[in-house]
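User: I'm new to structure prediction. If I give you an amino acid sequence, what do you actually give back? Let's try with this one:
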Amino acid sequence: MNRRLFPIVLSLVAVLACFVSQAEPSKEKPEPKKLRGLHLTGGCCHDYETQKEILTSGLGERLAIDWTILHEPDKKRSFAHQYELLKKENWGEGYDFVLYNICFAKEEDEDYIDGITKVHHEGLPAVALHCTMHSHHWKTKKKEWAKFLGARSRKHGPKKAFKVTPITEHPILEGFPESWQTPAGELYNIQEIYEGATVLAEGDNGLKKQPVMWVNEYGKARVFCSTIGHHNETMAEPLYLDVLAKGVRWVTRQK
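Assistant: Good question. You get back a string of structure tokens that encode the predicted 3D arrangement of the chain. For your 255 residues, that looks like this:
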């Protein structure tokens, strides 16, 4: 090759390589969507002050979430008396999902409960934990809250660790071991599983077996429920938080 042409050829090769690299699609994975989560917590019988930090920080380490937290510190009242937000017709606007960790068994305002469940029925996803399954239906006739959850529960067994065993395959259980012993526990008795709900795992405290995780299709919304979680040390378990993160992904249709 003529030595005078050599630098020109090199320049042309460099320019061509630049065009080729720009034309190739990026192989980098897109950043996951940052979710907007509403965490509702409070009520009787649990350390919600600590648990709201365990849950929001633990899930925040696994998913990109902007949290809004509403905590009712009065153990004898429910959100119906404190937060006007939940009485608005479009109270769920702006959120991708709701995380419930509440204990308001004696709430009997059915209009208030209907207002909450209506927003979920129209499509707002939810993750519901532990005493949420005892909330909002003990003193009501319609049982719409239980229908929203996909199950009805009124009682629990003794405070005793229990073994959790998956009974079906599901994205939420991806990577879950064949069995897992909770650090501590309080196995809930499930009186009814509603049509449309699918049980994912059972708990066994040596006295009886009960469903402890399930998913529900409620109107246009996906709902994931787990009765596991009375004690802080259980909620802080990495496996527990991993499952909840997968639950959030599933209800928000990211998986």
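You can read the tokens as a compact description of the fold. Here is one thing that stands out. The longest strand covers residues 209-218.
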